[in-house]
Amino acid sequence: MFATKTAADALADAAPVQGRSLWADARIRFFRNQAAVTGLVILILVGAFAALGPLIAPWNNEDIDWSVLGNVDTGGRPSLATGHWFGTDALGRDLFARTVQGTQVSLMVGIVGALIAVVVGTLYGATAGYFGGRTDDIMMRIVDVLMSIPYMFVLILLLVVFGRSMLMLFIGIGLISWLDMARIARGQTLTLRRKEFVEAAVATGVRPFTIILRHIVPNLLGVVIVYATLLVPSMIIYESFISFLGLGVQEPLTSWGALINDGAAEMNNGTLWMLGFPLFFFVITLFAFFFVGDGLRDALDPKDR
Amino acid sequence: MLAYIFKRLLVAIPVLLILIVATFILMYSAPGSPFATERGVPPEVLANLERQYGLDQPFHVQIGRYVWNILTQFDFGPSFIYRDQDVNDLIAQGFPVTLTYGFWSFLVAVLVGGTLGIFAAVRQNTWLDYLAVGVSIGAQVLPNFVLAPILVLVFTLSLGWLPGGGWQGGQWQYIIMPVIALSTSFMASIARISRASMLEVLNSNFIRTARAKGLPMRRVVLRHALKPALLPVISYLGPAFVGMITGSVVIDVYFSTGGIGKFFVESALNRDYGVMMGITVLLGALTIFFNLVVDLLYAWIDPKIRY
Amino acid sequence: MKVDRLLLTTSVLAFGFGAMTWAAGTHPVTGDALAEDQTFQFRVTAQFPTIDPQLIEEVQGAHIARQLFEGLTTQAADGALLPGVATDWSSPDNMVWTFNLRPDAKWSNGDPVTAQDFVYSWQRAADPATASEYAWYVELSQIKNAASVIAGEIPPDQLGLRAIDDQTLEVTLSQPLPYFPQMTVHTTFMPSHKASVEAHGSEWTRPGNMVSNGAYVLEEMAVNEFLRMSPNPNYWDKDNVIISDVTGYVIDESTTALTRFQAGEFDMMDDLPPGSYPRLEEEMPDVAHSVPRLCSYYYTVNQSETGHEALQDPRVRTALSYAINRDVITDQVLKAGQAPAYSFTHWATAGFEMPKIEYATWSQEERMAKAMELMAEAGYGPENPIEIDFIYNTSEAHKQVATVISQMWRPLGVTLNMNNYEWQSYLDIRGNQKFHIARSGWCGDYNEASTFLDLLTSNNDNNDGKYISETVDKLMAQSVTMTDPQPNYTKVEQVLAEDMAILPIYHYTQNFVLDPSIKNWPMQNVENNWYLKDIYRVAQ
Predict the structure, then answer these.
(1) Cα nearest neighbour of A68 on chain C
(2) β-bridge partners, C83
(3) Nearest to residue C389, comparing CAs of C471, C455, C310, C479?
(4) SS (H, E, C) C147-198
(5) What is the DSSP letter of B36?
(6) Which of A60, A64, A241 to mutate to test the interface with C (most CBs of C within 10 A)?
(7) Which residues in chain B are contacts of C260 at CB distance < 8 A?
(8) B13 to chain A nearest CA, in Å?
(9) CA–CA separation, A222 vs C498, rounded Å?
(10) Is the dihedral of CA C204, C206, C207, C213 positive or negative?
(11) What is the pLDDT of residue A291?
(12) Position A21 pLDDT exceeds 80
């Protein structure tokens, strides 16, 4: 019932495809997708905000505006006159500058986390699913163990042994992000492995890893990209949890997760802008990621449409 | 099939053993001690405490004793922090709570998320699709530690409809907010995954053939497209279930539900070695069990998959 | 079935209320009209590890234990010492104390509370087999042989305690301690019921197993959710207990806890969310309270070999202390009535005479100028900047204070590298001197200045900054035998200020919200000890 590819299709897929036409096609398809292009534009704008924000911000992210400290709910309101365009945080630090700086950290965290998940998780899952049998058993049981291990201890140990740094933050995030992806990729691969085009490739003597890279992974992309866009927000939030343990970014540096956390804590104190601005950037960026992800999925789908 | 299930359950034993050893090593190499307080405990008292909890024994004796007690008496030992509770008591009290609201959240996430995703795919690029995508993204991006206090603010303080927390044996009014807070992000993920995979299936040749034969859309979706489209969703259910159990920490903290979710964070922060081990073994067993169920579901959906 | 059970519970409850003599009456002393409903609900900030008096080592369990158990002495609303199980006490030399116990004191199962119960419990606290994290408190109280008993060198029955008869307890100390009766207020010295402990082991504190001698008994408890207490029918003073039903809800998260308080789900909560107090005070002045609390917030400076080189120089420490504008921290960051601190001992400590600390009287400009001068003298400053590693346990409030202080120190050429750790790692790092400056707080165990100052003697386990001063050691050693040790405490504070042994920042307040219908709450008790047997709800 699921066997729909004709043998000819399978053979065509198996034959080496010239990269030029594939990528060019994908690009054309992507740019025809309005939602995806809008998403891309938003991402570029948010990126520009992070990169250029420091140049135009009248305040920096760590200086306390002493005239505001203590009466933040009135003096710290967003205002053009004071130069606090987004208002200030609970300590009278400029929220615009802090949002800019938090954007830099969180974009990096989200993208790096998702990338590690995509690369490691997909390859791991595809390998396990493709080989099946004992290899699959062992690889997946390893994932089971890693999924159940108390991660806080791993993070605390990383912190104590290696000290804190941006690199450690990424390692902490990378360690956990790929596990779910591996299970999902493996599940999909189980089905793909039985498909004619894969069996044809096996029959023609293509080496297993070539099959995985050429035939399995491209067919996984749809699910992988959708799931990767789902991972971005959890990675960004996860960072604030890692920071709680001391491994993440440290004051005076900040991140969206930390800003949203702080803003939510002040929610009842009449200073909603502290939650509003970071949450706004978080939300539009995620929307953008979702649409770009969908666009990419459609564009890169190896099945002819 | 039965042989396969049996084999998988058998494999679970060494997997859990590896998990226990790895967790033991991690716990004991982390700084801090369950008995450290700001006051500083005098060395004699510390020695007494360590003797009482067997921490003065060599590492292999501790781990051997721990495993032995589990195997012979199913005894996971005492809590290192809650002096009048042992791990079995704590899990027996908390796990049913977590399981109850976890079950409802899971059900809501799968049913609502799945329906939303499938409708969105079938009516691609209509207002229904945009609404479904919008709702699911909206639910996805609101972190539950922001959502939970907002729920309490609205339903408890402003409207006065629901109690702001507690469990009281699991009466319905205590379950609603935890389920909303826990299920939204999973519901959104399921909606997006099922939409994407349904779109993919609807674009495949056999569905086009079915459509070309003039079968009504509803029949095509239910009879032919649904099952293959569920596969990625099912792949996601394993991690989602585990994620819900570990993610329930936010629920327990914000709604005082008294589930085991709180222990995931708290026992690690308190260095409550006993509870941490118990929770880890429980989570490991659940992970293994749920992944087995997911693997069996694969075989049901795609009969070509053999184990 | 379900309905029947419901009816049954209701009738039991109705009976319970009917038996209460005070319901719908007036208060015998104040004459206030009492409300029909004499229940009291409060928020418990975290699940307490235990309510076994000898094992309690944190605040939440202690609050519960004060309702369930009664020690030799208790406290009045202003913190003054009141008779508890003991009716009176005396000592000719502050060394041998004799407590006379009231003959009508009973356990909740009807057994009499005797001097032997106290002997048993105090021995239990010190006994290595009990492994109490608060065993040191017995040692602190100077009971004879305490240290050797805790170390396991001699059996617990060698502890300096003797039950002369059922109603007379004699305590022998190893050195005179004028404030020994004050120390018996503490939970560690409350009695536990020997027969129950022996019958149920560690599970004796569970509902159904527990036998207690306080105004209330434990009815129900769900871990991480709630606990419920009802009046003890055998309590000697039960006729004056007005609150008829007590429920504590365990709510970790303070923001939702406050929302639930505002929705009327309970009557009292402390540990308010950071930054919420000014708004609460403005909106509900009769609900929000700020009262002194016997704790000090300060920064520990590591003065051992692992510390920062520059910080070994008292001039640098002094400059750092001068540069902290404490008024900004108390009035603009914390905003909940805290007092700027220039001494370690809390200003409200009983009998404590605040020494004259000169820089406390200066303006911040003067302090800053002097700080710049001192830094320059020591060879540091903006031209020769220093970087200091600062540790704190993860908390919004600590982060805010540290952020502000780091900005205040910047003009001195000091960069503060802020490092947060979760509690256990933080304790480990601080206890092993792997820091330059550490955020610290200290709360008094009893209302006397030595509870603070002992910390900075050179052999104290908790002297994490490893500050060593012979003068302080000598003054503190002397103070123990003095009839009036206060002048010595004042001198110690002066030495601390000269050496700038620590950087005092502020003295705590207890901030809480309390339903205005609850009366007689002990606002003046700086140790935050409350006894629900004293409070009542008025009709509105």
Answers:
(1) C332
(2) C73
(3) C310
(4) HHHHCCCCCHHHCCEEEEECCEEEEEECCCCCCHHHHCCCHHHCCCCHHHHH
(5) -
(6) A64
(7) 152, 156-157, 164-165
(8) 11
(9) 70
(10) positive
(11) 84
(12) no
pLDDT at site A302: 61
B113 close to B190: Cβ distance less than 8 angstroms:
yes
- C75 - beta bridge partners? C81
3-state secondary structure of C536: strand
Residue A188 to residue B18, Cβ atoms within 8 A:
no
Beta strands in C15-69 (DSSP E): 39-44
Contacts of B among chains (3+ CB pairs under 8 A)? A, C
Mean pLDDT of chain A: 82
- For residue C37, CA distances in Å to A285, B21, C247, C268, C286 come to 53, 55, 13, 16, 20
Q: Express each pLDDT in A176-192 by its tens digit.
A: 889 989 988 998 898 88
Given this model, what pLDDT does residue A304 score?
47
Bridge partners (DSSP) listed for residue A165: none
Mean pLDDT value of segment A8-16: 47
Element (H, E) at C440: strand C437-443
Question: What residue type is B61 in one-letter code?
Answer: V
Nearest CA in chain C to B83: C50
For residue A214, what pLDDT is reported?
A: 85
Answer whether A256 touches B (CB < 8 Å). no
Gap between the Cα atoms of A10 and C37, Å rounded: 79
**Residues B190, B230: Cα–Cα separation, whole Å:** 10
pLDDT band at A194 (very low <50, low <70, confident <90, very high): confident
* pTM for this entry: 0.86
Task: Check C225 against B253: CB less than 8 A apart.
Answer: no
ipTM associated with this complex: 0.88
The answer to whether the CB of C98 falls within 8 A of the CB of C170 is yes
> Closest Cα partner for C339 from C176, C454, C509, C473?
C509
Strand C73-75 relative to strand C81-83, pairing:
antiparallel
CB-based contact C229:C121 (threshold 8 Å): no
Q: What is the CA radius of gyration of chain B?
A: 24
Question: What are the C-alpha distances in Å from A258 to residues A104, A248, A282, A294?
Answer: 13, 10, 12, 28
Interface test with A, best of B7, B141, B158 (most A CBs within 10 A): B141
CA distance B2 to B5: 5
Q: Would you say the C-alpha torsion C394, C400, C403, C409 has a positive or negative sign?
A: negative
pLDDT of the residue at B208: 81
Residue ranges, chain B, pLDDT below 50: none
Per-residue pLDDT tens digits for C170-219: 999 998 888 899 999 999 999 999 999 999 998 999 999 999 999 999 99
C260 CA to chain B: closest CA distance, Å?
A: 6
Residues with pLDDT less than 50, chain C: 1-21, 23
Query: Considering just the CA atoms, what is the radius of gyration of chain C in Å?
Result: 25
B45 closest CB neighbour out of C47, C133, C429: C133
Distance in Å, alpha carbon of C275 to nearest chain A alpha carbon = 7
Q: Does B44 touch chain C (CB under 8 A)?
A: yes
Q: How do residues A209-248 score in pLDDT, each as one tens digit?
A: 888 888 888 888 888 888 888 888 888 888 877 887 777 7
> What confidence score (pLDDT) does residue C24 get?
54
Concatenate the DSSP letters of all residues of C348-393 into one string: TSTTPPPP--GGGGS-HHHHHHHHHHHHHHTT-BTTB-EEEEEEEE
SS3 for A174-227 is: HHHHHHHHHHHHHHHHHHHHCCHHHHHHHHCCCCHHHHHHHHHHHHHHHHHHHH
C-alpha closest to that of B177 among B196, B197, B161, B195:
B161
pLDDT at B44: 81
- Distance, CA of C531 to CA of C74 (rounded, Å): 9
Fill in the amino acid letter for B93: Q
Contact A153 B243 (CB under 8 A): no
Between A and C, how many CB-CB pairs are < 8 A? 76
